[in-house]
Design brief:
The chain is of the alpha+beta class. It is 36% helix and 27% strand. The longest helix is centred in the middle third of the chain and has 17 residues. Keywords: Toxin-antitoxin system.
Length: 105
């Protein structure tokens, strides 16, 4: 079964901000390209294997269907609804991402 993958506008903005931040830190251009490729690859793989990510409810005290996947020092959050995967956010792992992701409950 192949799932439809929908990427939110917030996720697109998050990706742009992550790349901008990495460029500002002076990350080598080839590593930025690898980071972008890892994001695209992860999102594309969700169409075939969305259940491969970890369950967020195992890390927090709230029951949720949201899953996550680590990409470098960022966390990609998504949820599966029927035959659709909704990519919610790409947030830095070293921030208080829980406050941001709680709005989806």
């Amino acid at each position: 079964m192949s799932y439809n993958v929908i990427t939110s506008s917030e996720t697109v903005r998050d990706i742009e901000e992550a790349v901008f931040y990495k460029e500002g830190l002076g990350v080598y251009p080839e590593n930025i390209v690898k980071f972008k490729q890892a994001i695209v690859s992860t999102i594309r793989n969700l169409a075939d294997s969305p259940k491969i990510g970890s369950n967020l409810s195992a890390r927090i005290d709230i029951e949720t269907e949201i899953k996550y996947s680590m990409i470098d020092d960022y966390i990609l959050f998504y949820e599966i609804e029927a035959d659709t995967v909704k990519v919610l956010r790409l947030l830095p792992a070293k921030t208080n991402w829980m406050n941001t992701i709680l709005k989806y409950f």
